[in-house]
Amino acid sequence: MSDRLNQTPGHRMAGEPPARTRPQGRPRPPLASLQAAAGNRAVATAIRRGAGTAIQRAGGTAQLPPGAVVARATAAPVDDLQITPVTETERPARESGGGADTAAEQQAAVDEVAAQKAKVTEASLGRAAAETEVWNASGEAVEAHKKAAEARGRAHRLTTEAEAAERDGEKSRADADLHTGAARRKTGEQRAAEARASGFRGTERGKRQEAEKARDDERMYTERAEKAEKERKDAEDRAARFQKLADEAREKQKAAEERVKRLQKEAKEAGEKQKAAEAEARTRAEAQDQALQKAAKAEVEAEAEAEIAERVKQWAAAAEAALRQAGAAQKDAALRKGEAGDADASKKEAEGEAAECAEVRSTAEEQAKKARELAALRDREADEAAQERGKAEREAEKHKEAADKAMEQAAQAQAAAQKHENTAQERRRQVSQARAEEQKHAQDATAAQNRAAAAGQRQQDQRAAQTTASDAMSAAKKAQEAEKKAKEEAAAEAAKKNGTEAASTDKAGQSLGKRVGGAIKKGAAKAKPWIDQPDTVALRLSSPYSGTHRAEATKLGDTGTARNTTIQQDVENPINLASDFTGAFNDVVTYKDSVGKRHEKGPASHGHRKNVNTKPLAGTTNTLMTVNDGVKISDNLIRTAKGASGVAELGDASGALTVAFSTLTAGREVRALKNTRAQRNELKEHFKGEVAQRGRKLQDVLNELGAANTALAGTSVRLAAARPGEEAEALQAVENERTRIDGLRKELLEHLAAGRDYAVEKKKRKLTHRSLALGGNVARTAAGAVAIAAATGAVSGGIVPGVMAAGTALGLGGLAAKKGVKKANKRYNSVRDYQKHARTTTPQEGTPASEKPRLDEDGRGRRSDAWKEAVMVTHAIKQGKRQLNAQEIYAQAAGPAVPASENVPDDIRRKARDFLKTLKCGPDHHNQTEPEWEASLNDPDQQTEWEEAIAKALSSL
After folding, report:
1. Quick check: 466 and 120 in contact, CB under 8 A?
2. Of 858, 854, 861, nearest to 835 (Cα)?
3. Were both Cys, which of 142, 218, 365, 452 would link to 716 (CB 3.0–4.6 Å)?
4. Angle between helices 881-893 and 943-955 (to 10 degrees)
5. Residue 633 CB-half CA count within 13 A
6. Cβ(159)–Cβ(438) under 8 Å?
7. Which distant-in-sequence residues (6+ apart) come within 8 Å of 773 by Cβ?
8. What does pLDDT average to over the chain?
């Protein structure tokens, strides 16, 4: 069920405001009302005589020189009450050829309408171009004034800085002279201090030398005392050593004497032991002689004798050694006795030397003390001289630092003076440059002001011309309609009087076939939405149930259930057949109608070419589905009549047809998914950074923008004619109007961003729906293949095709139910909340006002009417969210000759037209060149056609 628009000029959309009546209080330049009146009289004269009379256009389309702009802006206004006579040529007498005169008058009326329409178009384009020129030139003027003011302020600031730099330079040079004099004084003081320091340095050096000499004497006497002391200590040490040697000699003498006694005693004991040993040896020999046997007697005796002899020798040697040691000890004792005497003598000599050295040390210490005191005195004197020298040096250093600092300050002051001089010169140069920039910007501002003033005057003149031409065109259209109606009435009267009933009967007979054909087409188109409702129920709910149970009953041999499901399908299949046949019929009719119109141009032509490309595939799909329905009906008839399980060939054919049309549909869905994704990404690129919102009605914004543009033109003229001292106020007025226009331009872009978001959201939903449809058709294709296999016995278990059918119903039926509920909700809200998406722009002139729905007590549409509308599936919503977005997009993309779009700025109009091209409403899709496409957008008579085309484009998203 397609969401189509069935709008005609005779059927208004719900919620639309009545047709706009051109405001009578619109400000017009002098003579505008008289020009309109003259145009109306000229149109009436042309209709009566058959000679078209042109309405004089308002002048002023050429750019005026600056002097002329000021003169024109300051000229005295023309008296609006002054009457300008309008003369008409004499009316010739009507000749007898009434038919020729009527045709000529009709053609003259048509020509007059076309001429006035051309004038409206030309004036609107001129006015729009002038508005753009006013906007651009006023912006350049404001920017140039800002730059000139900035340059002027910069020049003033730089002049102040240059003067300050010059003053600073003079001060720096004075400071340099002051610091130079101070440096000279400090240098003299430094030299005097250095001379004093030099004298104190010599005194210090002399005292230091004397102190050093005294310290040398001190060191000499100290060394002498230390040497004497050392010699005294050495003598004392020698005396002590000699005493020790004497003591040791005496002790050694005593020890030697004791050793002599001991050794003598040992020798005596050794002799006694020798004798005892000899006696013992003899005693033992005798004892052994008795004990030993005869055989060993000689050997034992020999050994005993040898042992005894050895012991005798040992004791003899010991006795001899003891005697020798005793002799040596006696000699040593005598020697030690002599050494003790010598040591006592040396001791006495050393003690004398020690006394002499002590006296020398005392003398040297006294002399060293005197030298030390003298050195300390000289050190104190040197320190005092050093302190004075330090003071003098510090004073000299201080004076030197002061002199250096003064010289440094003088150099810094000189550098600062030079820097200030350079700065002053640079600032003077920058001042000259800023003055030149100020003059240039002032000239640019003047030129821009003159251009804006000239464009503003042209804008006012062109608006007056457009108003005059629009009024004349409206009068010509009314006269044309009146003439046409009068002609039809006269022709009807003449036909009755002249007996032309037979001709009219023949004509009626010739048109009967066309009327019958048209009635059939309309009936099929209206019947399809109603048939789709039970078809959806049968196809998505009933068929999966009956198919599954019939397959299961056939498998189990349950003839009762199989017969019941067959009877159920006898009801389902005719419904499917009616829906599919009606769809195929409508596709053929639409294709045939579109083939003859595929070469047409304009907004409606795109639909014809699209139908030529898409309806063959849709018709083929619906035809296959129709044939499939016929095959299923035949199969069910055989089952019902014979009670059989069906014909396998018919099952194969049904499965093959299901695979065929499901494959075609799936292929179409794949292509649609690819194109939808690409177009969605392209749509998102439009109006980036703009927040989508509708704060108020678009027409209110456009009307206020038109008033602001008119006010900007007036303020631009006043700015160009402003006298010195009045420019600031006039410039502020221009800036205020531009600020106001900027806010209104942003509101226009916000409305366009709302249309963009609607289109992007539609694309997102379409991606979801297409994906679900693709999945459902893939499942249906698989179900058809399984049905073929089950019919041929390749797959056991008849439940499998039923499961596949249930999966198909889940994918496609769920999508259909969702779309149906959503559309019903939209239809309900279109009556209940009829103002939610009411039209916000001016409709095409001559469009009848839509009827206001009956209201409940709460001020909303009646619920009963809303529920009735919800179930009316034969027609689309007349005024909904999609129609509102289409109307607003068109209102900003149409040309300035269209009343709804006359105040749209050119740059925003170009952006809206780029958006139209992305919506596939561009010249390529309308079989037009770029100029032809723009001319159709600038034709007010094509407004409704354009809005319908844009709404269809949004619907197909």
Report:
1. yes
2. 861
3. 452
4. 130
5. 14
6. no
7. 665, 669, 811, 812, 815
8. 74
Residue that is written with structure tokens 């050119």 in the block: 906
Higher pLDDT, 920 or 50: 920
Which has the closest alpha carbon to 575: 542, 617, 621, 624? Answer: 542
Dihedral of alpha carbons 753, 757, 763, 764, sign: positive
The Cα 785–Cα 795 span in angstroms is 10
Which residues, 6 or more positions from 645, have their beta carbon under 8 angstroms from its beta carbon? 554, 562, 639
How far is it, in rounded angstroms, from Cα 16 to Cα 7? 13
In tens, the pLDDT along 21-41 reads 443 333 443 333 433 443 444
- Residue 344 CB contacts under 8 Å (≥ 6 apart), including other chains: 242, 243, 246
Beta-strand runs (E) in 11-128: none
**What mean pLDDT do residues 635-657 have?**
68
| Cβ count within 10 A of residue 922 | 17
- Asked if residues 140 and 716 have their Cβ atoms less than 8 Å apart, the reply is no
Name residue 8's beta-bridge partners.
11
- SS3 helix, strand, coil % of the chain, rounded to 5? 80, 0, 20
Measure the CA–CA gap between 248 and 236, rounded to whole angstroms. Answer: 18
Q: Which residues contact 628 (CB under 8 A, 6 or more apart)?
A: 580, 653, 654, 657, 658, 661
Could you please report the per-residue DSSP string of 890-918? HHHHS-TTSGGGTT--HHHHHHHHHHHHH
Q: Is the dihedral of CA 776, 818, 3, 693 positive or negative?
A: negative
Given a cut of 80, is residue 158 above it in pLDDT?
yes
Give every CB contact of residue 670 below 8 A, 6+ residues apart in sequence: 774
pTM over 0.85, yes/no = no
CA separation (Å) from 665 to 379, 425, 662, 771, 779?
A: 123, 84, 5, 12, 12
